[in-house]
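Before relying on records like the one below, remember that each one covers exactly one chain. Contacts with other chains, cofactors or solvent are not represented anywhere in the record.
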Amino acid sequence: MTTKMKKSRSVGDLNARINRVSTIVPGRLTMRQSISKHKYAKLWNSRSRDPNQVELSRNYKLGVHKFNRHPSSGIKHLTSTKVVADNPYDIAAFLLNGKGLSLTQIGNYITDLRKQISMEVLEEFMKQIDFKDLPFDQGLRHFISKLRLPGEAQKIDKLMEAFAERYCECNPNVISEAQDTIYILAFSVIILQTDLHNPQIKLHKKMDLESFINNNRGIDNGKDLPRELLESIYNGVKKEPIISGRDHLDFLESIDKSIVGKKITLMDNTRMLMMSTKMQEVANSNEKPIPDKHIRHVFLFNDLLMITKILQVKGKATTKTSSHRAISTSSFQYRQHFTIGSFRAEPFCEQYYNYGIKLVDSYDEERVLVQLSCTNEDDRMDFLTELAEVTWVYRALENDRIGNLGMSEKLTKSTLSLHSFNSDSEGGRRQANTLGRRFFKTNIFRTQRRDTTLGPAGSLFYTKGISSSDVRTQSQDVNTSPT
């Protein structure tokens, strides 16, 4: 066999493996699904300086945030920017493997009965989930882990119908020959789940085993399902509830619970944690810092930056997953927060603080909101780069929102929100009142600024297309300045 024939055969074998949809091992991703999952994870966590990759990553993040607000709008953006191919299979693969997606919105999108594209995506969505050799209750758990069930009975009905059809395809004649039997049993298990694990239902009114069995009598074309099967399902649901997978809202809730005392309300369906890191707050840059004093934990969300004081740490993080777990088991005290767009970040270097970051008020260049110090240049660059990306996406979303409101002028040289300030600050309250009056008088909040503030040398976050290299260049310029 020649080398050319060997090469052709190997490429053919690879294509055959990629195009396979089902797999023998339950729960394992096919090669095509693995490639898709790796692609979206890379776009979500991208730190590339390549302009094409930066644009692709930003469009992906912007599409995800749009999807979490309005699913159809997010899909339209992702397909129009070629991040996701405009066909039901690739859209379904994105919903299954995409990073940062709201499980609630996934459930809402694929059950939108008014749109044909949603029904086609639901069909492909189910085809890409493998239930082969999975017991019924485990198969239902696996399916529900991919989304959150909508609140409307009609939409749940559609999902259970799709699950029954796919489960019967993967496991023919395992429980019953009739697809309707699987559909009725799936709906019955959802009702059981709600009844057993709803805290509002009193203990003596919860469904017992005999009631569950009686509810499912004659569902198999007039015959009863095996009692052993129903007992196994009942005991399994009673012991471990069927729950959806975790998304950004679950982690947001754990952060909210870890903050003690007075705090802002973090729970918002569209809010997402993008980065968290430890820094030292700088009270006076001319004074030598005291080790382990004024340590702050900074949370960067997609719409605001929150600074907290660390009260108690119960775990040491070594990976991103364990970092989330350490945050969930720690205690923090709220200090202050700032809306993205209400400030700009400037790196600084002083005698005692080589890796400083200064947050300056967007409305008052003389007012420094807070000064922070990182432990090394890499940490500072990671924070500034992520903040730049978050700001770009936030500005794009606000620009789109204002366009949807019918305003003629796009947001190019304006800041994006009234103001974020410490609610305890008298100056903050006065400034908010002033800005509020100005906003309602003009109907569009637009701050006239000098053109010099829009360049990389003037501000990190007033440029139209800032990249990681812009941040690094400015940071290096500051570090080389004399102390």
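The first helix runs from residue 3 to 18.
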